[in-house]
């Protein structure tokens, strides 16, 4: 049993590694990024499609009451979104390809806009109808998806490669000095050549008798179904090919519409006629059979995926998308999942997306053969919600029971992959998190004044997702909470204070480093709210400890320089103290000066106001920044906290001199010094010899949850 578990674990790990390796392929990234760019279109289009095909005659009813503008509204919405989505995808893919090309610095810079213009032209040259026709058919989302993608990849690759040929580059001197014009003109001949090559391809296709690529592919796909039959093999082949087509972004049932027209619809009609005549329906596989039993929530039975995500996913992004996708899914419209998760070209979800409907085909077939479920002899429009459609298709509650069984089958197929997707995301996230941590720790600030949100690539995207999660978590104490680290008098073993430190346990990525939390809150503009919440929680805890800890035990709270710039910061702090019922001399604010180059007059003003009211001020990470001494000159701080980097390498003679000077300076100015990051006895002894008295570090205690910290304080053997 144990061995089996290990084997399963290893297999899962291999699967993750395989999927991970393929997830990071640049082409796959381009496709998935392109898809995410058209997601707004897909979401609006899905709603439009749902209302356009509202079940139970609801659409007709609303149209008769509200007039024709009701359906015009949805028709226009579908045309304006799904109708041009393939074109939008083409542009998005091409733009991403050009950006990738520029990032990899191969060949001259290619303007993504120019690449889009060139590739769009290639596409029109290749697929524009010779007769004026409905353009919508050409760019409809899942009809021309694969063609758009193929043209985009072929066209961009061709154009980008041609642009590297020296022979096709215009010499810089002839194109003036406007940088935009120069970039475009340099690669212009390559663009013209690419369009021309697509023109030749079109002529060749016409020449070999393929004027319409879409039609040609459909004819090819119908070949295996030339012989109509009602066997399990037929059912599996139809389901399997439909799903495979969806996986590459093509509308499966549309591409196999010949099967529907010539086999499935006539079979359904024959069954309905037999049922009306009181005879036994003959056919197992009909259109309602597939709609009711293998397409609950849309192709791939994606209602099962939504349920599996709600049951098993810790990823807030997927859960949010599923909340959006649930309503259309009830009417079997699943484009938000196909293009939003996305399921299309997804190396993880392709397995259950293919296998769940296959398994459901088998279970429903067997149940029908064993006469547990009647053959489908009812009419159920494809948008009829699951469970209702089971009854409508079979005229029997057994049909509903079959759907419940198939829902369970589908959910159990999707669930392990939902967990796998979470694990992969977690792994990828952890890699990117270390980049975020570095960005948050360093002083570099982007052009928008932000440390993390403007980072390029994966790091920036993760930062945005985390900032959203953090904003949604502000009021949740199970994820965002404080821990407290005691500060001790080294010889007396008396606890003089505790420092409140923030913790965020993210449901997918685990604990996020506090500097990242603070940087995200600063970047996204809610540091004031978060900071006040930290302050309020810390003060409330200290107030609740009254009579249980020494009267003079202080609570230290870290304050980001951004918070100090808020015009009402001093009043807000005083209001928090009043609300908590805490005396101001028990609060110490720790300000990190390393991120502020110059003592800012607003900040000094705010600190002086607070100090005037009795609140203590400490300078954190003293010795790291450039303004340490200037701060000391600007106003009388109460405490200096010696940075851990100076105490960690204590032994290096330069550090020893610096620490000695800081301690002497503190003693001369009557400022207390706290030594941070004390982990070893030897460290402690040397600092004691230097005259330091207050210490904080793992040697005494790690930061602890409130109750445990109180217990620690109360059980310390005091020697005074
Ligand atoms: P900090 O204010 O210098 O806090 C001390 C950090 O050193 C804490 O890390 C603490 O857990 C860690 N530490 C304490 N003793 C030892 C030790 O002996 N060895 C080692 N290796 N580390 C020790 P933490 O909690 O990860 O916080 C990191 C930084 O994040 C803090 O540095 C502070 O600048 C910031 N931060 C934490 N909570 C808040 C908050 O609520 N507001 C603001 N603005 N910043 C916060
Ligand atoms: Ca601190
Ligand atoms: Ca510090």
TrEMBL record:
It is found in: Cell membrane. Residues 463-717 form the EAL domain. It holds the Pfam family PTS_EIIC. GO terms for cellular component: plasma membrane. InterPro entries: Cyclic-di-GMP_PDE-like, EAL_dom, EAL_sf, PTS_EIIC, PTS_EIIC_3. The keyword Chloroplast does not apply. This is Putative EAL domain protein.
């Amino acid at each position: 049993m144990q061995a089996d578990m290990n084997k399963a674990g290893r297999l899962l790990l291999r699967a993750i590694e395989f999927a991970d390796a393929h997830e990071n392929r640049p082409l796959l990234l381009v496709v998935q990024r392109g898809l995410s760019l058209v997601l707004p279109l897909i979401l609006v289009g899905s709603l439009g499609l749902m209302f356009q095909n509202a079940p139970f005659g609801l659409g007709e009813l609303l149209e008769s009451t509200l007039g024709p503008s009701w359906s015009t509204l949805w028709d226009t919405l579908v045309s304006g979104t799904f109708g041009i989505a393939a074109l939008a995808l083409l542009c998005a893919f091409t733009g991403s390809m050009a950006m990738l090309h520029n990032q990899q610095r191969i060949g001259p810079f290619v303007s993504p806009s120019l690449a889009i213009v060139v590739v769009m032209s290639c596409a029109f040259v290749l697929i524009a109808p010779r007769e004026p026709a409905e353009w919508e058919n050409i760019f409809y989302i899942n009809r021309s998806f694969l063609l758009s993608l193929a043209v985009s990849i072929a066209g961009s690759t061709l154009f980008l490669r041609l642009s590297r040929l020296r022979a096709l580059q215009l010499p810089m001197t002839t194109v003036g000095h406007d940088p935009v014009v120069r970039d475009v003109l340099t690669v212009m001949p390559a663009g013209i050549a690419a369009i021309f090559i697509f023109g030749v391809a079109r002529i060749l296709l016409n020449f070999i008798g393929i004027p319409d690529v879409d039609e040609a592919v459909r004819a090819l796909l119908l070949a295996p179904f030339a012989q109509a039959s009602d066997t399990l093999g037929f059912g599996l082949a139809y389901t399997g090919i439909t799903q495979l087509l969806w996986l590459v972004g093509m509308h499966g049932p549309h591409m196999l519409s010949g099967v529907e027209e010539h086999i499935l619809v006539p079979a359904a009609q024959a069954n309905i006629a037999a049922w009306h005549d009181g005879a036994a329906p003959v056919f197992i596989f009909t259109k309602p059979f597939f709609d009711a039993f293998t397409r609950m929530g849309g192709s791939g039975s994606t209602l099962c995926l939504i349920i599996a995500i709600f049951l098993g996913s810790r990823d807030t992004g997927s859960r949010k998308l599923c909340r959006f996708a649930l309503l259309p899914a009830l009417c079997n419209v699943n484009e938000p999942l196909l293009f939003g998760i996305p399921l299309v070209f997804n190396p993880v979800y392709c397995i259950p997306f293919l296998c769940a409907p296959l398994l459901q085909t088998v279970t429903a077939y067997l149940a029908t053969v064993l006469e547990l479920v009647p053959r489908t002899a009812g009419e159920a429009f494809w948008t009829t919600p699951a469970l209702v459609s089971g009854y409508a298709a079979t005229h029997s509650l057994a049909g509903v029971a079959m759907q419940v069984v198939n829902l369970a089958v589908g959910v159990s197929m999707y669930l392990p992959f939902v967990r796998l997707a979470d694990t992969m995301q977690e792994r990828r996230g952890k890699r990117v998190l270390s980049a975020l941590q570095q960005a948050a720790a360093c002083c570099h600030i982007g052009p928008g004044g932000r440390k993390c949100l403007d980072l390029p690539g994966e790091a920036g995207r993760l930062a945005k997702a985390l900032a959203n999660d953090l904003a949604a978590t502000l009021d949740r104490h199970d994820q965002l909470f404080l821990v407290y680290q005691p500060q001790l008098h080294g010889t007396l073993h008396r606890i003089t204070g505790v420092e409140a430190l923030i913790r965020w346990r993210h449901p997918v990525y685990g604990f996020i480093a506090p500097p990242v939390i603070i940087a995200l809150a600063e970047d996204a503009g809610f540091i004031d709210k978060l900071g006040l919440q930290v302050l309020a929680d810390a003060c409330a805890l200290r107030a609740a400890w009254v009579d249980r800890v020494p009267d003079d035990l202080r609570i230290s709270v870290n304050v980001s320089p951004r918070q100090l710039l808020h015009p009402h910061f001093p009043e807000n702090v005083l209001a928090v103290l009043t609300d908590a019922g805490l005396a101001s001399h028990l609060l110490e604010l720790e300000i990190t000066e390393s991120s502020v180059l110059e003592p800012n007059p607003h900040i000094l003003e705010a600190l002086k106001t607070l100090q005037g009211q009795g609140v203590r001020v400490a300078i954190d990470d003293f010795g790291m920044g450039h303004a340490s001494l200037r701060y000391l000159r600007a106003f009388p701080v109460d405490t200096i906290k010696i940075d851990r980097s100076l105490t960690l390498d204590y032994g290096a003679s330069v550090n020893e001199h610096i620490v000695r000077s800081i301690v002497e300076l503190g003693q001369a100015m009557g400022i207390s010094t706290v030594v941070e990051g004390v982990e070893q006895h030897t460290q402690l002894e040397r600092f004691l010899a230097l005259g330091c008295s207050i210490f904080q570090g793992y040697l005494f205690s790690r930061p602890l949850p409130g109750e445990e910290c109180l217990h620690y304080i109360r059980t310390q053997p005091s020697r005074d």
